[in-house]
Amino acid sequence: MSQFKVTFLKEGVEPRTVEVDTDDLPYDRDGKPGSILDIALGHGIDLDHACGGVCACSTCHVILKEGNDSFNESSDAEEDQLDRAPGLTMTSRLGCQAVPDGSVNVVVEIPLWNRNNVLSDH
């Protein structure tokens, strides 16, 4: 059992921190099990994912702010999709593919351009 926290940031919205227990993963059926998309959806945080979380678009683009070294390596397919994402940074990932290993707490920014996202207080 491993427990860690994921903090979701979005400009103009109060940060939302959720606790993740790796024994409870996966939460959802979209994205890789334990991915940022899986964690977000499992905690009532809407993260746009037009392709259903199968690495076929860039709508779940997130920016890793802390804990970057705890994530899996990005694949060539993910890199190809990220090339289409607006606001790309050196720490950009697709939420459906970015899986933290639970060794540290992580902070993830949902880019402001993604207007379909809501950090709800569920």
Task: Provide structural commentary.
The protein has one domain (3-119): Ubiquitin-like (UB roll). Helices cover 11% and strands 28% of the residues. The chain has two helices and seven strands. It has helices at 36-42, 76-82, and strands spanning 3-10, 13-21, 45-46, 61-66, 92-94, 106-109, 118-119. It has a five-stranded mixed β-sheet with strand order 2-1-6-4-5. A two-stranded antiparallel sheet has the order 3-7. A hairpin with a 2-residue loop joins strand 1 and strand 2 (13-21). The two termini are 24 Å apart. The relative contact order is 0.27.
Protein topology:
Elements: E1 3-10, E2 13-21, H1 36-42, E3 45-46, E4 61-66, H2 76-82, E5 92-94, E6 106-109, E7 118-119
Parallel strand pairs: 1-6
Antiparallel strand pairs: 1-2, 3-7, 4-5, 4-6
Structure at a glance:
The protein is an alpha+beta fold and 122 residues long. The chain has 2 helices and 7 strands, in the order ββαββαβββ.
List its traits.
122 residues; alpha+beta; Ubiquitin-like (UB roll); five-stranded mixed beta sheet; two-stranded antiparallel ribbon; 2 helices; 11% helix; globular; disordered C terminus
* Radius of gyration over all CA atoms, rounded: 13 Å
What is the helix content? Answer: 10-25%
Q: How are the strands of the biggest sheet laid out side by side?
A: 2-1-6-4-5
How far is it from the N-terminal to the C-terminal residue, by CA? 24 Å
